[in-house]
Amino acid sequence: MVRRLKVAGLKLASCSGCLATIADALLPYILKGDVELGCFALLADPEMDGVYDVGFVEGSVATEEQERELREFRRRVKFLVAVGACALFGGPQSINPGIAKLVEDVVEVDYRIPGCPIEEWQVREVINHLMRGTRPPKETETLCTECRRMNVPCVAITKGLTCLGPAVMAGCSALCPSFGRGCYGCRGPSPGTSIKPLLELDPNALNMAIVSQEKVRRGWR
Amino acid sequence: MEVKIHRLGRVEGDGGIEIVIGPAGIEESRVYVYEAKRYIEKALRGRHYSEVPDITSRICGLCPTSYSVVSSTAIEKCLGCEPPEHVVRLRRAAQLCEWVNSHVLHVALLHAPDLVRFGKRDHERTKVELAKTAYIIRKWSKTMSKALVGRAIHPVNIRVGGLWSPPKFSIAKALLRSFDDVLATAKGLMEMVLGLERPEWPPLREGGTVLEESYPLLSQEVVLMDYSGDAMCLYSALEKEKPPYSNAPRLRYKGKAFSLGPIPRYVRFGHKLRSEARDQLKQAGFTPKSMADSIVIRVAELIHALLEIRDTVAEISEYKVWGTECPKTPGEKRVCFAAIEAPRGILYHRYVIGPDGRVIEAELLPPTVANLAAAEEDMKYIPSELLKSRETAEWASALIVRNYDPCISCATR
Q1: Measured in whole angstroms, how far is the alpha carbon of residue B259 from the centre of its chain?
Q2: Which range of residues forms the domain containing residue A156?
Q3: What share of chain A is helix, strand, coil (3-state, %, to 5)?
Q4: B285: part of which helix (H) or strand (E)?
Q5: pLDDT digits (tens, 9 = 90+) for B81-123
Q6: What is the CATH number of domain B2-412?
Q7: Which of A99, A131, A163 corresponds to the end of one domain?
Q8: Residues 118 to 157 of B: which have CB under 8 A from any A CB?
Q9: Chain A residues with CB inside 8 Å of B128's CB?
Q10: ipTM score of the complex?
């Protein structure tokens, strides 16, 4: 037995890359009739005029208008999912100080999907769980685990590259290492890990992150 | 009468439309941009040039490869470290994957629903057909992007100097086995689009493209109205103004709004499209009459892009070298620029890079800043009978904006 879900999407200060990924992931569900889109500006009507089972929010919060919108969205959404580096860590705009609030600074968040952009499988995981009435589990795996499982040789050990893998969330199929470069942390910190030992070995490690050091450190205490 | 669409759906980003209708027709027209500024150009200052392609791609989730490729190309050209020809060709194929990704999304899911309504066809069935088509084509082209540059959105395999690693040939070549099906689906989309009743307004607007031998894609030269030549020279002469109701600027040339994207590309260089991409157009006797015909040209460009991607992937084989090393510290100040045809038109980048290799200044001008000005001016061509009711006026003004497939996140950045 499954539930039909009404899904909404909200975009704040961001690039639409996560919402485009969500659209791709949802299309088969929509065609099958398992998912109906509510307010979702990229594909459908952008006005909030109902209550939604799941709401995805992309982007950092930059203006008072966006804060107001996000609160309104929260009121209408039963399960709020913050998606992507902008919503969770401020995104590249947070390199500039003071203009990027996180979604969790404004409203309570039920689930977080890391990524820049997020991956389609993560959206399907959330939708499948909610269709069955269960909650998606919290992800904690680091990129290193993913590299080992996929048999991608460690680029730090074999090539001497700077790689944030030991402290970064997995889920991207070890993308950068599989293309011969070190992870620059676009998926953000894995809970429970620490960046400190990496920084002692390589003080420049965090400079390659595309979000502000301050924002990343918050999750990397 | 004032007609206001507070928030426009089926476009990328946060914008709205307001038109004021008087006895003589449209008196005022504004395209609002509420999208919050992210100041990405400012965020680039002080970063080493090698980090630039990974940061600029984050400006847009629909045309990120355009950003990575044009950033890399601009910097390579001024540092004198351009990659070998097969790498350039492969990056062009990745760029064309993005044309496919972006065009099919816009045509099938964002633009066509306006025209399905216009034609009063069997709405729901047609929309489902369009969604299935989009799914099939996007799945193929996104997987191809993944094989060539890591992923379709925010690619990781593009760097200043070339690529980080060879593309995943086994995946790319395996995808060629389903190419014929995807091409047939694209041709089916063309049939559907040619069958839509497209309005004959607004008239074609003059515009510009990147200038090169092939169908325009990537160069330091551009052509716009009476200008043809160096992109930096033209872009320094364009007028930029930021209306108070918009977080995105407007771009004009000699006081005139101009269009960028599929219409000017096709009007100037349609003869350079692959003949297989023009066959159906010829049979249908198609010549573009209005900006709404951009939907047909997008599908022709999509077919052209698919054919180019197939040939590149089929012909390129294992090479030892996939990039050059660029000097980490150039030793003197350099000014870098290049222009690329993003799916929506010319995306121009200019960087000033210091002796230490760090960015001193960045200027990134996406096509939507020109197209927003064009869309505002196009409103005056809405036929008066459509201005009599709020519903038809809303529909017509939204269609005019969607003709350009605006990317508001880019325009605001």
Answers
A1: 12
A2: 143-219
A3: 40, 15, 40
A4: none
A5: 999 999 999 999 999 999 999 999 999 999 999 998 655 556 7
A6: 1.10.645.10
A7: A131
A8: 128, 131-132, 134-135, 138-139, 142, 150-151, 153-154, 156-157
A9: 31
A10: 0.96
